[in-house]
Amino acid sequence: MKPSKDTPNGVRPGAHDAATTLPNPSSQGEAGGDELNTSSTSVISLRILELLAERNAECGVTHLAEALGVPKARVHRHLTALRQEGYVVQNPRTSRYRIGWRLFLLGQKLVKQFDVVGLARPVMEELRDAVGQTIVISSFTEKDVVVLDVMRGRSPLEILLHPGTQFKLHSVAQGKIALAFGPPERRDAVLCGPLEACTPHTITDPMRLSHELALVRERGWADAPEEVFLGVNALAAPIVQDDGSLFGTLAIVGSIHYLPAHPNPQTVAALTDAARRISRLLGGARGN
Hints:
Elements: E1 15-17, H1 35-55, H2 61-68, H3 72-84, E2 88-90, E3 97-99, H4 101-113, H5 116-131, E4 134-140, E5 144-151, E6 165-168, H6 173-181, H7 184-192, H8 206-219, E7 222-223, E8 232-240, E9 246-255, H9 265-281
Antiparallel strand pairs: 1-6, 2-3, 4-5, 4-9, 5-6, 7-8, 8-9
Helix pairs in contact: 1-3, 2-3, 5-9, 6-7, 6-8
């Protein structure tokens, strides 16, 4: 995520857009059966589908190859496989390709899966109006927090986030929720790996982070004052699904002046109550 003129002085980005995390398809070959090459092959097919969806029009092999920076023959092989499975269709008159029926159906399923965002927005709006700060709902991968939706704050200082923004789990309040309430394997992997510093305040010591996660589990919410951006804090609480597992987090993000290292108990109560309300919408046990 690029810093903006609206963020506090000294803020350093600790996140990156989801699109930038994909490997460069032109830097890895398809030959061989190892995991790296398999992943590269899958990513190229996904990038082809992404380009077709973004363009919202038919595309030729040449255009796709140039956009991806890979040989046309390679792109053609991927398109042939995708066409055979119904993910793309080819216009017999122009020989160009567009999104197929199977990808459309997959998209419909994904919309239903993430309808939690639509369910959560009224609660997010109420919380935003109550505290005046930016409200963020996020989910997780094994290594990152992924922003799903953002409700812009009404404070003079705007924190610029958008769906798809990613943060390392140890560097943000939302990630501490994922580590405290998510699978132990995820927590163990992060604690055993390198903890990179985004600011001088980022927790980079595994023992200290472990103690912090124990505190998060005890009190039911997390914070991360100036740990990913200087001058910025976030408070986060867990959102739980109907099977009792962690879906994601609800967070308040704002200037350290409005969300100090020792936050107002009323702000914390408003956050945790909103997270419980969203959990109830998902049938989550924590929302009872």
